[in-house]
């Protein structure tokens, strides 16, 4: 019995390691036409100089969304990937000043839910709709114009052009850009003068509400007092009983 068990285990182990090694041996050959969705993170890692964009893709979970979307989409996807230099030329503190939601929107603004070849850029109608949504005025419009071979992109705040093709496979296109695309919705200068005054009083109200957790410690101390009374009562009872 025992020997048979050992034998079976060994056989399974051998079979398993064989299948592992064949999988490993096969994977380079499979690389050009991978089964399953294309991994954008991997493509960017291989290309180098996109560490900050990769970090954002991961921290916002947009990388996972992309995997799912590529797997389910017939239209494909286009990603405009800003280089690390693009991120370092942002005003310092720019990323840190964004809320989590804005970070997601910023990353999604760099993704178009259609596969676009460079020749399609010439006939595309503006504004493009990105994953960030609403391409209306002041929201998330992205305009692409071409002159000769150069493809220019404007958001209303950022002017840049496509500076390289990192990857295309008929389903996914990844282009390099040298500036972070800043959407108006997030980065437009705030309207000046009259607007801020009411906004501030709203903020004050908001902080008052936010301050209300003060109530909780008070409740806690009440609870603590009740507990003390309770303990005292029990102690008194014990003393009374023992007498
Ligand atoms: C995609 O590639 C990255 C980097 O190579 C890796 O960390 C990640 O696990 C991959 N994701 C999937 C779903 O394979
Ligand atoms: C891709 O999609 C198919 C069916 O649409 C699904 O069965 C499969 O689990 C998906 N794979 C991934 C990695 O999302
Ligand atoms: C594209 O941008 C370049 C500078 O980056 C500029 O010289 C050129 O005029 C722009 N072309 C179009 C069609 O906007
Ligand atoms: C984008 O193109 C549309 C249509 O041509 C235009 O109305 C809009 O003003 C443009 N926006 C920017 C930011 O260039
Ligand atoms: C972008 O280009 C437009 C027209 O080509 C110009 O009016 C605008 O000032 C430029 N914006 C920046 C930030 O360079």
Automatic annotation (TrEMBL):
The keyword Glycoprotein applies. It is found in: Cell membrane. Keywords: Cell membrane, Glycoprotein, GPI-anchor, Lipoprotein, Membrane, Proteoglycan, Signal. Residues 37-181 form the FAS1 domain. Pfam families: Fasciclin. SMART domains: FAS1 (SM00554). It comes from the Eukaryota. InterPro entries: FAS1_dom_sf (IPR036378), FAS1_domain (IPR000782), FLA_A (IPR045003). PANTHER family: FASCICLIN-LIKE ARABINOGALACTAN PROTEIN, FASCICLIN-LIKE ARABINOGALACTAN PROTEIN 12. May be a cell surface adhesion protein. This is Arabinogalactan protein 2. It comes from Gossypium hirsutum. The lineage of its organism: Eukaryota, Viridiplantae, Streptophyta, Embryophyta, Tracheophyta.
């Amino acid at each position: 019995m025992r020997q048979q068990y050992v034998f079976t285990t060994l056989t399974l182990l051998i079979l398993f390691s064989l299948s592992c090694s064949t999988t490993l041996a096969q994977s380079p050959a499979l690389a050009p036409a991978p089964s399953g969705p294309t991994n954008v993170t991997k493509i960017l890692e291989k290309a180098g100089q996109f560490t900050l964009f990769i970090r954002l893709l991961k921290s916002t979970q947009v990388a996972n969304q992309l995997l799912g979307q590529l797997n389910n989409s017939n239209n494909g996807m286009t990603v405009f990937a800003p280089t690390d230099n693009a991120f370092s030329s942002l005003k310092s503190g720019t990323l840190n000043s964004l809320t989590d939601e804005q970070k997601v929107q910023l990353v999604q603004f760099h993704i178009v839910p259609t596969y676009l070849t460079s020749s399609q850029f010439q006939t595309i109608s503006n504004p493009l709709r990105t994953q960030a949504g609403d391409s209306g005025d002041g929201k998330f419009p992205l305009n692409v114009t071409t002159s000769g071979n150069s493809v220019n992109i404007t958001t209303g705040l950022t002017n840049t052009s496509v500076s390289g093709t990192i990857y295309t496979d008929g389903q996914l296109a990844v282009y390099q850009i040298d500036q972070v695309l800043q959407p108006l919705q997030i980065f437009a200068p705030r309207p000046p003068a009259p607007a801020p005054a009411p906004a501030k009083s709203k903020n004050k109200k908001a902080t008052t509400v936010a301050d209300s957790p003060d109530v909780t410690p008070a409740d806690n101390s009440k609870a603590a007092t009740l507990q003390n009374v309770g303990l005292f009562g029990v102690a008194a009872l014990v003393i009374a009983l023992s007498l």
